[in-house]
TrEMBL record:
Keyword S-adenosyl-L-methionine attributed: yes
Membrane-protein topology: Single-pass type II membrane protein
Gene Ontology cellular-component terms listed: endoplasmic reticulum; plasma membrane
Biased composition (Basic and acidic residues): 12-29
Taxonomic source organism: Eschrichtius robustus (California gray whale)
Keyword terms, alphabetized: Catecholamine metabolism, Endoplasmic reticulum, Hearing, Methyltransferase, Neurotransmitter degradation, S-adenosyl-L-methionine, Transferase
Taxonomic lineage: Eukaryota, Metazoa, Chordata, Craniata, Vertebrata
Database matches in InterPro entries: SAM-dependent_MTases_sf, SAM_O-MeTrfase
Name of the protein described by the UniProt record: Catechol O-methyltransferase
Enzyme class: transferase
Cell compartment(s), UniProt: Cell membrane; Endoplasmic reticulum
Main subcellular location of this protein, as a coarse class: membrane
One Pfam family named in its UniProt record: Methyltransf_3
EC number: 2.1.1.6
Gene Ontology biological-process entries: catecholamine catabolic process; developmental process; dopamine metabolic process; methylation; sensory perception of sound
Amino acid sequence: MAGVGPGAQAAPRRDGVRQEPFRSHDPRLHPASNHRPRAYPFPDELSRCGCRRNPGFRPRPYRVILANQWEGTRCVTDRLPLLSYALIFPKQEPPAQVGTMSPAIALAFLPLVVTLLVRYRHYFRLLVRTVLLRSLRDCLSGMRIEERAFSYVLTHALPGDPGHILTTLDHWSSHCEYLSHMGPAKGQILMRLVEEKAPACALELGTYCGYSTLLIARALPPGGCLLTVERDPRTAAVAEKLIRLAGFDERTVELIVGRSEEVIPRLRTQYQMNRADLVLLAHRPRCYLRDLQLLEAHALLPAGATVLADHVLFPGAPRFLQYAKSCGRYRCRLHHTGLPDFPAIKDGIAQLTYAGPG
Ligand SMILES: C[S@@+](CC[C@H](N)C(=O)[O-])C[C@H]1O[C@@H](n2cnc3c(N)ncnc32)[C@H](O)[C@@H]1O
């Protein structure tokens, strides 16, 4: 039998190319050996090629095994097809590793990650300042940001001077901790519009720490009043102190603690507000449309009333804007600004002028 044993000659292939015969260095595989194992040793050459033993294979004498010639990972199967079938399996794919990613794929994602980081860096910074750092400081100090802001105002601002209190809050927000307030750029627009419209009665939804409340209150005409609504009692407590520190009494600025959707229906009966000449929506953009429709339904908007809505571009109030533009009852104007300390994040204040229910 051609190619049998370590000393065998190279076997000619069908295509005429001579192949090196299998020469094992394992003495047990030598044809002269009388050894008859219960299970013949699996050739190292095959193990290295990724083959494994067929568990159902019955041991055979060496001579038969050595009659097979191996070339690399393939077997010359034309001589002993049965034996070859018993010994050789397709090379097994390594099991997929769960939870690991090939470095090449990870590298392919790197430019995308870098591009996203560069493009949205302002949003990441905002996220870090408004969520991560704020939560960390809340945990460490046991106080909320509005309370920390008020402590700063108490020690740095002039009581009875709303302008100085507003500047102190701006300074604290840009140098210490980021406050989600209106900020000086939007504040200028708000103050100018309040002075221009001179509302006898104004309504604010979303007091927060009282920043925009002070802006409206100081621009009101003599005898004008402001009702401001804040749903969070702890935030409202800070705003109340700030408003009184600035020198506004309850007749000028009244703070109502409650949700806008619950307060609006009671404005007429419980708070004697029959009309809101100017409304500032600054609570939650996705509630603007609902609350505007509530104000309309309770006939709280006189013809010519001004409705201002903050944050209509960021985070954005598309349904509100769509309604205001398409319902035919409002004249709309958009004042473009950026977020305080983040001028690259574009935002805007919408100014609606109510034409009346007709
Ligand atoms: C972005 S802050 C307002 C900022 C404020 N206008 C300023 O410039 O200082 C939003 C405030 O609205 C309050 N708020 C949210 N939803 C409300 C609702 N349905 N009714 C009343 N206040 C609400 C929040 O508790 C938060 O204090």
